Amino acid sequence: MDVREQAAAAPVPAEDLAEAGLRLEIDGPVATITLDRPDKRNAMTFAMWRTLARIGDALPGSVRVVVVRGAGKAFSAGIDLSMFSEGGGPTADPQEGDRFIAELQAGYTWLRRPEIVSIAAVHGYAIGAGFQLALACDLRVLADDAWYCMKEPALGLVPDLTGTKPLVDIVGVNRAIDICLTARRVAAPEAAALGLAERLVPAAGLDDAVADLVAALLQVDADAAVATQRLLREAPGNTLEQQCAAERREQLARLRALRGG
Ligand code: CAA
C-alpha cells in the first residue's frame, strides 16, 4: 500500500468536515470540496485550513480532478476576521510560529500535486485567503461577475497562504505589486486578461463550464496526464537542455508502459 492508499483508508470524518465548514464529495475520479459557511461568506478558519490539509492527505489515489467551490453568494471572503479578536494564532516563539503557518499552508500546497488537476470554481468574490486558494489551484474557472482582492496588506499583513508565487508567476512582479499593495478589487474581465482565469464564463453557466472542463480532463490518459503535468511543473526551473532530457525520460517511460513493460 502506498502512502495515499493508506491515507484513503482513513478518510476525514463527516463531523470533522462539518465542524470545519467544509463538504467533500468523491464521485469516482472527481472530488468536490465545498467551502460551506455561506452565512459568513465562506470565511476561513484555522480549522478549515487544517482540514483542507487532511483532505489532501486522505484523498484516494483514484481521484484525478479536485474541484474547489464556495456555497452561497461567494467563493470566500478570506480569513474569518473574528479570529483576530479571538486569538489562537501563532505564538511569539519564532519556531512555533513558523510551524503554525506551515501547517496552514499545507491546506493549499497539496492542490499542486501532479497526480491531480485542481480547479477553483470562483463566483462572487475571492478575497485574501480565498484569492490565494484560487491561486493554489491549477485552473480557475471564473464567473464574469466575480472579483479578486488581495486584502492582506490593507490589514497590516502579508499574503502567506502560498499565493505570492503563483500570483507573480502569472502576472509578473510589477502587476503583483499593483494588485497587493493597493488591495484593490480586480474584476473578472481584468483578471482573465491578466491570466488569473483559465475560463471566464457567464455566472449562470459556472457549474456547466466546470463540468465540461472536468469531462475534458478525464478524457485524456490518466498516466500521461500525470507525467505531462510533472514535465510542465518542472519546466520553469529547467534549462532547455534539462527539460529536453526530462521529456525524453518521461516519454520513454510512457512508451515502456504502453508496450506493457
Ligand atoms: N470574516 C468573518 N465574517 C465575515 C467575513 C469575514 N472575512 N466576511 C463576511 N463576513 C460575514 C459578515 O460579518 C456578515 O455576517 P452577519 O450576517 O452575521 O453580520 C456576513 O458574512 C455577510 O457579510 P456581508 O453582509 O458584508 O456580505 P456582502 O456580500 O454584502 O459583502 C464582503 C461581502 C465584501 C466580503 C464583506 O463582507 C467584506 O468585506 N468582508 C471582509 C473581507 C476581508 O477583509 N477578509 C479578510 C481578507 S485577508 C485574508 O483573508 C488573509 C489573512 O491572512 C489576513
UniProtKB/TrEMBL annotation:
<dbReference type="InterPro" id="IPR029045">
    <property type="entry name" value="ClpP/crotonase-like_dom_sf"/>
</dbReference>
<dbReference type="GO" id="GO:0016853">
    <property type="term" value="F:isomerase activity"/>
</dbReference>
<comment type="pathway">
    <text>Lipid metabolism; fatty acid beta-oxidation.</text>
</comment>
<dbReference type="GO" id="GO:0006631">
    <property type="term" value="P:fatty acid metabolic process"/>
</dbReference>
<dbReference type="InterPro" id="IPR014748">
    <property type="entry name" value="Enoyl-CoA_hydra_C"/>
</dbReference>
<keyword id="KW-0413">Isomerase</keyword>
<dbReference type="InterPro" id="IPR001753">
    <property type="entry name" value="Enoyl-CoA_hydra/iso"/>
</dbReference>
<comment type="similarity">
    <text>Belongs to the enoyl-CoA hydratase/isomerase family.</text>
</comment>
<protein>
    <submittedName>
        <fullName>Enoyl-CoA hydratase/carnithine racemase</fullName>
    </submittedName>
</protein>
<keyword id="KW-0276">Fatty acid metabolism</keyword>
<dbReference type="InterPro" id="IPR018376">
    <property type="entry name" value="Enoyl-CoA_hyd/isom_CS"/>
</dbReference>
<keyword id="KW-0443">Lipid metabolism</keyword>
<dbReference type="InterPro" id="IPR045002">
    <property type="entry name" value="Ech1-like"/>
</dbReference>
<dbReference type="Pfam" id="PF00378">
    <property type="entry name" value="ECH_1"/>
</dbReference>
